[in-house]
């Protein structure tokens, strides 16, 4: 295998991910309950559209790919397969889910055991492709960001707040002190670790109601070729990011008098932390899009951790999750506006790596500011 900047063969005609250019935006709709809404109409497929009618105004959004509302987990994964496979050839891939709470982000990313989502399917595919020859050295890390605190979901000791530091440029620009990177010899171990990480996220959920939708979760898998047939040292990375709900503060029920709600103060703090981090994500996307020399990755823990995943040469895919319910329409439009602008960010052609990437981002035009959660539909 030679190195260089050539795109890997996709071999997937009609599939979306050619591994070059912009951040790809895919849109999945929460399955409809009851009567489908007449306020949202969907044209699925490549370059599909979502048209909304809100307060007498029509908005039309075109995305790279729109899934039909009844799309299966398999159908969603099929679109991501080429990108996932490219990790084995030394590419860095980031798949992240964005949208309002309850729209199916975790369902798409994790899925129930009987109908697995992107993460288990991706890992299974990678291990199947790697075979049993031990040609790759695989490591896994899993963190959660809750109220701007970064926590190792795979730590063996008591939960500790991790410190994110600026690292040497050659290592993706950041270092997370104390984060464990586990060696993963096989798929079975990987599944065990993922469910451990998931349960560590979920343990908090019973204590802090709906905690998981108030936190961001990042899974990072690194695949380093250790022996032929792959070129030694070629390192691919897969980042899978399940973002916290993007709904605006007042929707989260925290605009109501905090005193009357015993959890109000906590919820307000959570919502503010999420808003800040998603706003920072919007700021990073805007800077990338406008090719500004300074990209404000340091504005939040989320953007710091995503820095290696959002730099030049990475293949990034945003899976936007939306609801078609009439009462969610405002949020749906905000999410679509965010996604449409993300779709204009160009990270440049996918580049293969020998080591984790450093990040001087390259990007595109237009200076309309991107907003995370401060949206007016
Ligand atoms: P989010 O992570 O965006 O807050 P969830 O993934 O937790 O949302 O989904 C909310 C609920 O909707 C869950 O009960 C989930 O099982 C269900 N759900 C979401 N998407 C689908 C889907 N495509 N098919 C079936 N159930 C779904
Ligand atoms: Mg969730």
Description:
The strands form 2 sheets. Strands 1, 3, 6, 7, 8, 9, 10, 11, 12, 13, 14 and 15 form a 12-stranded mixed sheet that branches. The N terminus is likely disordered. The relative contact order is 0.20. The chain starts with 23 loop residues before the first strand and ends in a 35-residue tail after the last helix. It contains 7 helices and 15 strands. It is globular, with a radius of gyration of 20 Å. Strand 8 and strand 9 form a beta hairpin. The chain is 26% helix and 23% strand. The protein has 377 residues and is α+β, with helices and mostly antiparallel strands. The longest helix has 26 residues. It binds adenosine-5'-diphosphate (ADP) and magnesium ion.
Helix and strand pattern: EEEEEEHEHHEEEEEHEEHHEH
- Class per helix and strand makeup: alpha+beta
Count of DSSP H/I helices: 7
Largest sheet: 12 strands, mixed
Q: Whole-number radius of gyration?
A: 20 Å
Helix content: 25-40%
Parts with pLDDT < 50 across at least 5 consecutive residues: 1-16, 251-259, 356-374
Number of strands: 15
How much β-strand is present in the residues?
15-25%
> Which kinds of small molecule does this entry bind, naming each only once?
adenosine-5'-diphosphate, magnesium ion
The general outline is globular
Mean pLDDT: 81
Note the gap between the termini.
49 Å
GO molecular function, one term: microtubule binding
Main location: cytoplasm
Function: May play a role in microtubule-dependent retrograde axonal transport. May function as the motor for the transport of multivesicular body (MVB)-like organelles in dendrites.
Keywords: ATP-binding, Coiled coil, Cytoplasm, Cytoskeleton, Microtubule, Motor protein, Nucleotide-binding
């Amino acid at each position: 295998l030679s190195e260089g900047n050539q795109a890997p063969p996709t071999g997937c005609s009609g599939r979306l991910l050619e591994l070059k250019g912009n951040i790809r935006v895919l849109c999945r709709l929460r399955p409809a309950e009851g009567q489908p809404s007449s306020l949202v109409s969907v044209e699925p497929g490549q370059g599909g559209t979502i048209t909304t009618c809100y307060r007498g105004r029509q908005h039309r959004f075109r995305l790279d790919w729109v899934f039909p509302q009844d799309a299966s987990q398999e159908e969603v994964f099929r679109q991501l397969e080429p990108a996932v496979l490219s990790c084995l050839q030394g590419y860095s891939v980031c798949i992240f889910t964005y949208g309002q709470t309850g729209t199916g982000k975790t369902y798409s990313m994790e899925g129930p055991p009987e109908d697995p989502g992107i993460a288990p399917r991706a890992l299974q595919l990678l291990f199947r492709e790697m075979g049993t020859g031990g040609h790759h050295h695989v490591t896994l890390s899993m963190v959660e960001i809750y109220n701007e605190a970064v926590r190792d979901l795979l730590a063996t000791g008591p939960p500790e707040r991790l410190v994110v530091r600026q690292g040497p440029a050659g290592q993706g620009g950041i270092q997370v002190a104390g984060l464990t990177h586990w060696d993963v010899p096989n798929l079975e171990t990987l599944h065990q670790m993922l469910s451990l990480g998931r349960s560590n996220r979920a343990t908090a959920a019973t204590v802090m109601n709906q905690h998981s939708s108030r936190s961001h979760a990042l899974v990072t898998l690194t695949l380093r070729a250790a022996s032929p047939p792959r070129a030694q040292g070629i390192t691919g990375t897969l980042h899978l990011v399940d973002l916290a709900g993007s709904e605006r503060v007042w929707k989260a029920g925290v605009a109501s008098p905090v005193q009357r709600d015993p959890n109000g103060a906590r919820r307000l703090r959570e919502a503010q932390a999420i808003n800040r981090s998603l706003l920072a994500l919007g700021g990073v996307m805007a800077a990338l899009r406008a090719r500004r020399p300074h990209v404000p990755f340091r504005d939040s823990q989320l953007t710091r951790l995503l820095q290696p995943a959002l730099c030049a040469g990475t293949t990034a895919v945003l899976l936007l999750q939306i609801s078609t319910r009439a009462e969610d329409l405002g949020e749906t439009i905000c999410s679509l506006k965010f996604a449409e602008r993300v779709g204009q960010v160009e990270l440049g052609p996918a580049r293969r790596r020998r080591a984790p990437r450093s990040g001087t981002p390259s990007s595109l035009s237009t200076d309309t500011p991107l907003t995370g959660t401060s949206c007016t539909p």
